[in-house]
Specification:
Helix content: 25-40%
Distance between the termini: 34 Å
Keywords: Cobalamin biosynthesis, Methyltransferase, Porphyrin biosynthesis, S-adenosyl-L-methionine, Transferase
CATH class of the largest domain: Alpha Beta
Oligomer: single chain
Number of helices: 10
Structural class: alpha/beta
Strand order of the largest sheet: 6-7-10-8-9-11
Organism: Brevirhabdus pacifica
Protein name: uroporphyrinogen-III C-methyltransferase
Radius of gyration: 20 Å
Family: Belongs to the precorrin methyltransferase family.
Pathway: Cofactor biosynthesis; adenosylcobalamin biosynthesis; precorrin-2 from uroporphyrinogen III: step 1/1; Porphyrin-containing compound metabolism; siroheme biosynthesis; precorrin-2 from uroporphyrinogen III: step 1/1
CATH topology of the largest domain: Methyltransferase, Cobalt-precorrin-4 Transmethylase, Domain 2
Shape: globular
Length: about 280
């Protein structure tokens, strides 16, 4: 493992023994990791990391740092949140410099707030370094801006499951379907039939463009463009799976003109005025 960046001259935060540092690793691409988070990795004695943290990021750790996996994946045996929080406290009280490394941003559907509460109750000092959330960075890599002044002045971020792992029952889909022009839904593949059905039942047009971005920002990223009425069938047809971020709204059309990754590979824009065109046929790339 080599030093990936020279921090000489940078005003990096102190990282004393007995502190826990909650760090967002970003949506996948190691290049989206913040320099502050990188400096924490290089100084940590213990790193407690999530399932979606890229191994190339873990390779940047200090050679003597201990790695502890605490990933959560739907439908698979996972560490309990209470046990993770207790482990962070235990490591800190043992005098370790602890990095809690989380995919995306710790405070965006990452349960970082719960871990921070536990640390406060235990009297353990902590610091937070945000990360790029998949709902912004992942869609950006797919050529989809979450806001565009010709389309929307609001965007709503929604979780695809509740505390029990079921489809979220406390969300007012009627209000969201009518009031939010763009919905960005995390962790929704498992419950996509219920979620898309609720949005349709609330009155959203079935022709509304939808994008499903799997493995956002990673080399194996795939993007499915479809519509709200067809998304469930198209996800199954194209074999789309988790982890994925789903965007519902007219901004999805912008990918036809600003799919920058495709254009760097030699593809031509499919439309220069995507807002005036019909939604494209389902296409996974």
């Amino acid at each position: 493992m080599q030093q990936p960046f020279d921090f000489t001259g940078m005003d990096v935060p102190e990282f004393p023994a007995g502190m826990v540092w909650l760090v967002g690793a970003g949506p996948g691409d190691p290049g989206l990791m913040t320099l502050q988070g990188l400096s924490a990795l290089r100084r940590a004695d213990a790193i407690v990391y999530d399932a979606l943290v890229d191994e190339r990021i873990l390779a940047w750790r200090h050679p003597d740092a201990n790695l502890e996996y605490a990933g959560k994946r739907g439908g698979k045996p996972s560490a309990k949140q209470r046990d993770i929080s207790l482990r962070l406290i235990e490591l800190a009280r043992a005098g370790r410099r602890v990095v809690r490394l989380k995919g995306g941003d710790p405070f965006v559907f990452g349960r970082g707030g719960e871990e921070a509460q536990a640390l406060v109750r235990a009297g353990v000092a902590f610091r937070v370094t945000p990360g790029i959330s998949a709902g912004i960075g992942g869609l950006g890599y797919a050529g989809i801006p979450v806001t565009h002044r010709d389309v929307n002045q609001a965007v709503t971020f929604v979780t695809g499951h509740d505390q029990s792992g079921d489809a979220p029952s406390a969300i007012d889909w009627q209000a969201l379907a009518k009031g939010s022009p763009v919905l960005v839904i995390y962790m929704a593949i498992k419950h996509l039939p219920q979620i898309s059905g609720a949005i349709l039942a609330a009155g959203r047009d079935g022709a509304t463009p939808v994008a499903v971005v799997q493995n956002a920002t990673r080399p194996d990223m795939r993007v499915l463009e479809t519509t709200l009425a067809e998304v469930v069938a198209d996800v199954e047809r194209h074999g789309m799976g988790s982890p994925a971020i789903i965007c519902v709204g007219e901004v999805v059309r912008m990918r036809q003109v600003i799919d920058w990754a495709g254009q760097l590979e030699g593809e031509k824009p499919r439309a220069l005025d995507p807002l005036g065109s019909a939604p494209p046929a389902a296409d996974a790339s």
